[in-house]
């Protein structure tokens, strides 16, 4: 057998796909083919003009190869501009936009074709792109970020189908001079026409029965029980539509594949998994798949000691529910970038607003409010919109140390949200959080208990309940709530705050090593969080670590030159001796500085 010779080289690949080709084929197949070929010629011409070449045309997809990532980006912008101009000259129903994904990496060249993971990554990236838009990998971005007038929006890391490692995805848009990581709304490329790639309304999720290891008789029952707990828990999140068990449990055999099952059930997301028991332990493998493209969104393994089967079911189920809520939310936030922002539905406006909110910059926070306000104008009775507005004003009130006007708005939106949906845990939690800010922890605890009763997996409500207990003087009783929050939401965006509260609780029970360790974890997530460093300094002094305390105090003074003890006295402990206790610990360090 003749030895095969392969050439490896660094290349930039553009994967290009026609949007709506099948729809046009159903209207007029000959006209659709002619339209595709006309646009394909534009793509070939633009790629050639910028030093690239097209290859691998298959159906309504095209690949192009470039040696220079900058030229690849320019070529993509060029052919998309030309195609948009062409689409503008025909009726809306006959427009054919193209989206593209760009990746740079190592490829194998064989007889004019390119192979390898980096080719496949480009193909997966184009699924993230808006119509007439571009999605690029972080690898390509590093090559072009300072050498082009484009603007970029970072969507985060994703596991792509059949790709071993996560890939960071960015949307590239046409911009002015300079490049920025955060594109304004107008910089996100928009599609011509009114075509929408997804069904209207919020997504549906289906939980399939988990596959149990048949060697143990009770494993199958436990697998079904966990899946049932997840269905129940997800239904309590309120914003997700959950397919009933009677329908999803018909698919015990997943050999049909997630796309076919999702289509049959009308579910955009499928949850599945396997459960095995061995040597006094269980191992659960769970996964979340996007049925629209077959992409694995999330997967995780849970290993637990098998002690109390019912408490174990409850613990694992609640953890998975909390994770799934956030992962589907994140996926839906990213999906909104595939829709022109002016065409977003109410629930999509909420998801886009949440995307900006999660970036935690002043500019993004203001943009988030624009999206929430637009959603409110479209549907002032949407509980989802009312909850997001309540959260937005709570966040600003927290930054402003309890601004009364903002807290009034928190309560107004939350109470209206309860009128719209009395079984939603979120308004109860936000009312509780507002009471905490107003110095009414006993009233807060009542609201938060109701929120936790409705949705036991609601990590924010558990963290807020810990804060209420802390303010009431029950530090020992607060600690389990903060630990539950860590278990339910280990990658939460606001985890630094929960850890800061936990550090305070450890200070009050005088577990100084734990207080120092937890404060460090908080500072690792948010180095500028003053409260965690304040607590750490006091705990170091009480531990006799004077030199370490002095070093931390120097950092504190640099980061927070305007700090005064009034910020600690503002914390609404029922017993002001608690404020004095924390301040006294800190003052010990100041006295040696």
Automatic annotation (TrEMBL):
<dbReference type="Pfam" id="PF00211">
    <property type="entry name" value="Guanylate_cyc"/>
</dbReference>
<dbReference type="InterPro" id="IPR001054">
    <property type="entry name" value="A/G_cyclase"/>
</dbReference>
<protein>
    <submittedName>
        <fullName>TolB-like protein/class 3 adenylate cyclase</fullName>
    </submittedName>
</protein>
<feature type="domain" description="Guanylate cyclase">
    <location>
        <begin position="12"/>
        <end position="126"/>
    </location>
</feature>
<dbReference type="InterPro" id="IPR050697">
    <property type="entry name" value="Adenylyl/Guanylyl_Cyclase_3/4"/>
</dbReference>
<dbReference type="InterPro" id="IPR029787">
    <property type="entry name" value="Nucleotide_cyclase"/>
</dbReference>
<dbReference type="InterPro" id="IPR011990">
    <property type="entry name" value="TPR-like_helical_dom_sf"/>
</dbReference>
């Amino acid at each position: 057998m003749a030895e095969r010779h392969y050439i490896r080289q660094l290349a930039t690949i553009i994967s290009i796909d026609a949007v709506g080709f099948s729809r046009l084929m159903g209207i007029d197949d000959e006209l659709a083919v002619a339209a595709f070929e006309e646009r394909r010629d534009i793509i070939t011409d633009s790629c050639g003009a910028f030093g690239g070449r097209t290859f691998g045309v298959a159906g309504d997809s095209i690949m192009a190869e470039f040696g220079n990532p900058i030229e690849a980006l320019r070529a993509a912008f060029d052919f998309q501009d030309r195609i948009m101009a062409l689409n503008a000259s025909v009726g809306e129903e006959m427009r054919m936009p193209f989206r593209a994904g760009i990746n740079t990496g190592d490829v194998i060249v064989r007889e004019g074709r390119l192979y390898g993971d980096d080719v496949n990554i480009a193909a997966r990236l184009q699924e993230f792109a808006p119509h007439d838009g571009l999605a690029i990998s972080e690898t390509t971005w590093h090559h072009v970020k300072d050498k082009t007038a484009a603007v970029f929006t970072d969507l985060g890391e994703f596991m792509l189908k059949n790709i071993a490692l996560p890939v960071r995805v960015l949307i590239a848009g046409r911009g002015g001079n300079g490049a920025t990581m955060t594109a304004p709304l107008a910089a996100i490329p928009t599609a011509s026409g009114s075509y929408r790639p997804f069904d209207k309304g919020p997504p549906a999720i289906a939980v399939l029965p988990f596959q149990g290891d048949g060697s143990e008789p009770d494993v199958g029952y436990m697998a079904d029980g966990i899946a049932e707990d997840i269905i129940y828990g997800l239904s309590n999140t309120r914003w997700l539509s959950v397919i009933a068990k009677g329908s999803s449990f018909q698919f015990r055999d997943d050999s049909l594949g997630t796309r076919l099952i999702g289509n049959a059930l009308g579910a955009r997301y499928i949850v599945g998994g396997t459960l095995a028991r061995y040597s006094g332990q269980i191992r659960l493998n769970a996964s979340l798949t996007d049925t629209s493209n077959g992409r694995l969104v999330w997967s995780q393994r849970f290993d637990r000691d098998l002690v109390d089967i019912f408490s174990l079911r409850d613990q694992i189920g609640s953890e998975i529910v909390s994770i799934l809520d956030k992962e589907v939310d994140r996926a839906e936030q990213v999906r909104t970038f595939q829709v022109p922002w002016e065409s977003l539905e109410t629930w999509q406006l909420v998801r886009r607003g949440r995307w900006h909110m999660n970036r935690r910059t002043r500019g993004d926070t203001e943009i988030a409010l624009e999206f929430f306000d637009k959603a409110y104008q479209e549907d002032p009775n949407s509980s989802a919109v009312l909850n997001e507005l309540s959260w937005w004003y709570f966040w600003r009130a927290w930054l402003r140390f309890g601004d009364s006007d903002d807290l009034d708005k928190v309560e107004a939106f939350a109470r209206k949200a309860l009128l719209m949906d009395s079984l939603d845990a979120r308004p109860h939690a936000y009312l509780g959080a507002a009471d905490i800010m107003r110095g009414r922890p006993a009233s807060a605890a009542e609201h938060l208990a109701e929120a936790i009763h409705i949705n036991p997996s609601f990590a924010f409500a558990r963290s807020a309940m810990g804060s209420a207990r802390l303010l009431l003087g029950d530090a020992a009783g607060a600690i389990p709530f903060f630990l539950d929050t860590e278990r339910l939401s280990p990658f939460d965006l606001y985890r630094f705050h929960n850890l800061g509260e936990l550090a305070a609780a450890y200070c009050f029970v005088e577990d100084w090593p734990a207080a120092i360790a937890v404060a460090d974890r908080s500072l690792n997530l948010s180095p500028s969080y003053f409260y965690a460093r304040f607590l750490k300094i006091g705990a170091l002094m009480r531990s006799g670590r004077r030199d370490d305390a002095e070093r931390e105090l120097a950092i504190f003074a640099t980061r927070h030159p305007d700090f005064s003890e009034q910020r600690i006295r503002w914390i609404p402990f029922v017993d002001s001796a608690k404020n004095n206790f924390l301040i006294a610990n800190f003052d010990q360090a100041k006295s040696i500085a």
